[in-house]
Design brief:
This protein has a 5-stranded antiparallel sheet. The protein is of the alpha+beta class and 162 residues long. The chain is 34% helix and 25% strand. Strand 4 and strand 5 form a beta hairpin. It is built from 5 helices and 5 strands, in the order E-E-H-H-E-H-H-E-E-H. It has one domain.
Length: 162
């Protein structure tokens, strides 16, 4: 089946983090989010009140070690992570599997894309987009399952004729 569970503030976000600038204490500071909750106080992304932002920020930090890591600053990143592990400060990569829509494993696997925007020579922001990984590749996983089933069926048929 196609990916057909809702995407909203509880499982997806686009947010902006200060990653490089004049002072070190600003690194990791949440600049803004795509949800309806305004950023009214200075908070680091890993401490955000929105779980999706907090989990994603913790996954980024667990994977790269720092907001100003070379791989984050100079390369676009695309990766998956388990939300439940990230909330505990650990990075666990995941692959969404073709399972029931309410399966906790598929709902716990999120995908992230990052891009640095250089505002001037001293200021860089990291744009972070996250949503359930199944939204990216549900069709591909479904097609792979059908192909695997057909190959197994053909193998079994061939075996019966030998």
């Amino acid at each position: 089946p196609e990916y057909d569970f809702p995407i909203g503030n509880a499982n997806s976000s686009l947010f902006v983090v200060h990653v490089d600038g004049a002072s070190e204490h600003q690194r990791g500071q949440l600049i803004g989010t795509s949800d309806a909750y305004p950023v009214t106080t200075r908070v680091h992304a890993e401490d955000a009140s929105q779980e999706v932002v907090r989990a994603t920020a913790r996954a980024v930090l667990a994977k790269f070690g720092a907001w100003n890591a070379t791989d984050l600053l100079y390369q676009e990143q695309l990766f998956t992570f388990r939300r439940s592990s990230a909330l505990l400060g650990h990075f666990t990569e995941c692959t969404p599997e073709l399972q029931a829509q309410d399966d906790a494993r598929i709902l716990d696997c999120w995908q992230v894309g990052t891009l640095v925007v250089e505002l001037d020579k001293r200021t860089r922001w990291l744009l972070v987009a996250t949503l359930p990984a199944g939204a990216f590749n549900r069709k591909a996983v479904s097609t792979a399952a059908v192909v695997k089933s057909q190959v197994e069926s053909l193998s079994n048929s061939s075996y019966n004729y030998v």
